[in-house]
Amino acid sequence: MNILYPLLFLCVLGLAAGVLLAAASKIFFVKRDETVEKINEVLPGINCGACGFSGCEGYAEAVAQGRAACDMCKTGGAEAVQKISLIMGVDADISEPETAVVRCSGNCEAAAVKYDFEGVKSCAAAEMLYSGYKKCTSGCMGYGDCVSACPHGAISLINGVAVVDDRRCVGCGICVKMCPNGLITLRRRSAKLDYLCMSKLPARQTIDACKNGCIACKQCVRVCPSGAVKIVDDHAEIDYSLCTGCGLCEQKCKRNVIKLRQ
Prior knowledge:
The chain is of the alpha+beta class. The protein folds into 2 domains: about 35-90, Electron transport complex subunit B, putative Fe-S cluster (3-methyladenine DNA Glycosylase II, Chain A, domain 3), CATH 1.10.15; about 100-260, 2-Layer Sandwich (Alpha-Beta Plaits). The protein is built from 10 helices and 8 strands. The chain has helices at about 5-25, 35-40, 55-65, 75-90, 125, 145-150, 175-180, 205-210, 220-225, 250, and strands at about 100, 155-160, 160-165, 185-190, 195, 230, 235-240, 260. Strands 1-4 form a two-stranded antiparallel sheet. Strands 2-3 form a two-stranded antiparallel sheet. The chain has a two-stranded antiparallel ribbon with strand order 5-8. The longest helix has 24 residues, at about 5-25.
């Protein structure tokens, strides 16, 4: 009998607590926005943050409230844009798909080094020490900060340089933010040519630093019939709005800077 009353008390206490919690859940219930739930269901759910919001649900709430466009989820691609636009009752504005490209071809055979880096194997860490261990201070350091950041496994290190696999890349742009040298950019998938050097060094220093570095010789500029190739900060760049993909600039480039995409 001495133990029975405490047990009964605990049972009554537990029952009362259950009733109170059930009542509280009804009283303080917050109805979720069905539009937010529908949008969240069609998003990929990886919470990559490439859209600029905290995650997929944050983006879904912003779209439902009219604070964000329907086409900001690069990971979901055209399919997500179409579904979100249908939910919101607006026309789908699908822009041309993009992919990331690492604008450097300074691999282990081509790039000269100025010291052996023995610190944390991180591009961000290496860049803090004399702008990296390579003589070209604008080149890929090959420690894979972008590789670790890519949620789709689209980037790998090949011979000391990060390379993007177009088949896996969705153009989310997360890798762009991770490169301390700003070597990774997004360009439209239909582009037929890539320029693979961002060196800001004068020609003589570039020749000493990398066998594949652009020396701003302007041969590519002179041969381009559409004026798409320009020299910017001592290296060639392609204006994709003008480029026709004829490939004449690649044929003239003797430093392997401009490449025709396969």
